Amino acid sequence: MAWALQGLASIEFTSNKYVFGDQFLEIRGFQTGKEWIGYSFCYMIPFTLVCTAILGVVLKYVRIEPDRAKLDKKKQISFGKVAESGDERDFNLPFTPVDLTFDKLVYEVTTSTGNETLRLLNEVSGVFKAGRMCALMG
Predict the structure, then answer these.
(1) 11 lies in some domain
(2) Spatial distance between the Cα atoms of 102 and 124, rounded to a whole number of angstroms
(3) Domain limits at 8?
(4) Nearest-angstrom CA–CA distance, 47 and 26
(5) Domain count, the chain
(6) Is residue 56 part of a domain?
(7) Tens of pLDDT along 81-125?
């Protein structure tokens, strides 16, 4: 990583923005010369490839499973099916779709200073229809 830092310092301080860039690098203990830019790329490209390969292997073979001890082992609900000791059967939950209406809804919060309140919703009225996704925005 020191080679990468050396390359970054060389890129920055050998540009035309700095009049005494080489002297600054020498004072700080860095090597001067533009060849360090190439060295940093020669280091960082294989380093990135090796880290990517290691991450790919870890993601393929290492799995973190949720704690199954907390779940009931005889019944597990999974996407509309109940699994009981190997066999699966469908289940239906009682659900009645309803429309929701509201009239003159007011929503206030205290400010971060705590001295006054901020009104986000001011007497808003509306209807939420069953089966429709809605967002209430102030």
Answers:
(1) yes
(2) 8
(3) 2-61
(4) 27
(5) 2
(6) yes
(7) 544 555 556 666 777 888 889 899 898 998 888 788 988 888 888
Same domain, 11 and 55: yes
Domain assignment present for 76: no
Predicted confidence (pLDDT) per residue in 29-68, tens digit: 888 777 888 888 888 999 999 999 999 999 888 877 665 5
Residue 41 lies in a domain: yes
